[in-house]
What we know:
Blueprint lengths: L2 H5 L21 H8 L10 E3 L2 E3 L13 H31 L10
Antiparallel strand pairs: 1-2
Amino acid sequence: MPRWRESSEDGSAKEGGDLGWANPGMFVPEFEQTMNGLAPNQISDPLVSRFGVHLLQVLERREAQLSPREQREIAQNVLREKKQDEAYALWVQEIRGRAYVEFREPPQ
């Protein structure tokens, strides 16, 4: 058994890290940008995302027409990501608004 299967906490570890065929919008932007910049069989430098540290290798590329279902899934993923980003920004703004900082002079 390859070592990455033993040390990986990723859900794809049992498949040897194989994520299968990927459609646009399927992964977080930093992952997808790195993946799209790789030539077949090229291995990326370590990539850090909010899900951990990754090494990517594109084995091959395909040209395929997306089905209406796949197009809907891509659109839903983009909208979900946008809503999550907006919700996070509002949460951060709310937390900062409730923060209280008091500056005290040290006793003399």
